[in-house]
Amino acid sequence: MPSLIPDDPSVLLTTAGMQQFKPYFLGKADPIKDFGSKNTASIQKSFRTSDIDLVGDESHLTFFEMLGNFSFGGYFKKEAIEYGYEFIVKELGLEIHYVTVFGGDREVGADEESVKIWQSLGVKDIRKGSREDNFWGPTGSEGPCGPTTEIYVRGVEVWNLVFNEYYCHPGGKLEKLRTPGVDTGMGLERLVMVVQNMPTIFETDLFKPIFNFLDQRLSKPRPEWSKRIIADHIRGIVFLIVDGVRPSNKDQGYILRRLMRRAMPHLLEFQLWDPVVVGEKNDHAFKMRGLELVADCVIREYSKIKDYKYLSDRREEILKVIREENDSFDRVYENGSKVLEKIINKAVSDGTFVISGKDIFDLVTSHGFSIEWIKDKARKIHGLKLELDVFDEEFKKHQEVSRAGLEKKFGGHGLILNTGELKAGDEAELKKVTRLHTATHLLQWALREVLGKEVKQAGSDITPERTRFDFTFPRKLTPEETKKVEELVNQKIMENLPVSFKEMPRLEAEKTGALYFFKEKYPDKVKVYYIGKSLESAVSKEFCGGPHVDHTSKIGEFKIDPRAPRPLCFFSLRLL
Ligand code: SER
Predict the structure, then answer these.
(1) Distance from the CA of 94 to the center of ligand 1, in angstroms?
(2) Which numbered atom of ligand 1 lies nearest the CA of 139?
(3) Do 367 and 453 fall into the same domain?
(4) Which residues contact residue 536 at a Cβ distance below 8 angstroms, ignoring those fewer than 6 apart?
(5) Is residue 11, in this structure, part of any structural domain at all?
(6) Contact of 486 with 558, CB cutoff 8 Å
(7) 4, 203, 334, 450: most buried, per Cβ within 10 A?
């Protein structure tokens, strides 16, 4: 089963079953060759942080399993809706409460075709939804997307049928796909909830073993919402770890750390904290507590399913990651929780009932607390308000400063990639700087287009967040010029031009018109990277060691920061 860490560098985690099928929707991979058919179906581990604040209610989760059927130019609306109807009504014997379809907006018309198909099946309650509710995708900065129709059973949305009719370019421009496709997604947990006729997903047999375990082991009863958070997060933690994520302060690692540091205090309050010696033989025995014990329960239960047997094979490794994070959190927890208690008491005694953004910021950055735990504790347990907008602002500033500090400290040395202009600390960062590196080549080309060939590169500096391009030019750029440069770069990104290189003798390379630094000493053989179909017709040619993306569309949306004294270019990565 494909990993929770996608190949697609524009997203941190796999959020939907369709993600791995993007190339098939775009005609870049051949489904007949790979699946023997234009149609296929899957079950996919998925993870979404978008619902993290809702976890604790009846039906929201971070980690879930998604069932889906897909067609890449095979069947379309009629069959997809008929299959959906047949499965829910005939196979499962459930009643469709109502369905929703896309009601249309200025850009895309209402989906009357789906309305007619539902009517022909005898479904009466058909509701029209907005762009926000009934239009899906893309994942990341670009990709296939289209109107959706959703099936509700007992008021619960169980199945989302997406008709991928468009390609969304970075920046939001929609283009009709040559071959429309179907992407459907049905959360297994919600489906089980309606099939087993349970009021919440947590009472289904998917969660029962974890709840039974918690109920047996807890020394004091806790509210349901708290147990639900533990049960949801522990599944996410186990599956993120087994797919290779490790707790850290960035990207996927930061998501994992937040989950762990939210679940740990919940368990502490539960007092599931006494060490337990586990293992059959003494030499294998080790002490487990809190989160590890619940993780072990998840591993035991899921390993009963053949496809998840790898969890038990890697049990010790998973538990070790949890134990180490537990230990490091222990070192800060006691002190931090005293500080938090004090802040809470003060908010109550001074009658404001508000926790300031600065206090939240300190708890997160100095005491290593998960923002979600602070919300749980202050808001849900004590009924206080939090100044979250102030916190968000402080936190963003802090991240920028620590990034700058890191760059200064390393100065580009000791990191896995350092060509003088690129700095990346790990695979995920490497993917980002690679995208920005190609963007930098396009930027140089666009600047020369707009300002003239006198533009000369003086240097550049690329980190995972942004690229900086230094160049000589006698005056500041006007806002119109900046805008034009930005547009040109985005235009080339949208054209999805191939990026390639040719290795050749230096003297020959110089004759190709490729850009290079006059003062730099190059070896006798150099690589010329070019953007375009051939070296002759390329828009950009530069002496360069790489690495680059293979096609410009992988760059994402390109933006020039208007506040920068010289062009400082960011592209936006859409987070989950
Ligand atoms: N991609 C759609 C979703 O995630 C349907 O699979 O809801």
Answers:
(1) 21
(2) 1
(3) no
(4) none
(5) no
(6) yes
(7) 4
Q: Are 193 and 225 members of one domain?
A: no
- Answer yes or no: do 25 and 140 share one domain: yes
**Token output for 67:** 């069932």
Q: Rounded CA gap, 23 and 31, in Å?
A: 9
For residue 559, pLDDT over 80 is answered with yes
Do residue 448 and residue 349 come from a single domain? no
Give the Å distance between the CA of 191 and the centre of ligand 1.
Answer: 14
Q: Using N-to-C axis directions, what is the helix angle for 290-302 and 315-349, rounded to 10°?
A: 130
How far, in Å, CA of 468 to CA of 443, rounded? 10
Q: Is the pTM of this model over 0.90?
A: no
70: Cβ–Cβ under 8 A, 6 or more apart, which residues?
Answer: 17, 18, 21, 24, 39, 40, 41, 42, 181, 182, 183, 184
Taken in order 28, 32, 38, 40, the sign of the CA dihedral is negative
Beta bridge partners of 143: 168
Q: Examine residue 9 and state whether it is found in any structural domain, yes or no.
A: no
What pLDDT digit, counting tens, does each position of 482-512 carry?
A: 889 999 999 999 999 999 999 999 889 989 9
Task: Pick the last residue of a domain from 199, 230, 259.
Answer: 199
Share of the chain above pLDDT 90, in %: 61
List ligand 1's pocket residues with C-beta within 6 A. Answer: 16-18, 68, 136, 160, 162, 183-185
Choosing from 199, 220, 242, the residue where a domain stops is 199
Q: Are 502 and 527 in contact (CB under 8 A)?
A: yes
Same domain, 262 and 222: yes
Q: What distance in angstroms lies between residue 18's CA and the mean position of ligand 1's atoms? A: 7
Alpha carbon distance 196, 190 (integer Å): 10
Of 184 and 430, the structure prediction assigns the larger pLDDT to 184
| Counted domains in the chain | 3
Note down the domain range covering 571: 415-575
Q: Does 214 lie in the same domain as 195?
A: no
Q: What are phi and psi of 387, to 5 degrees?
A: -85, 75
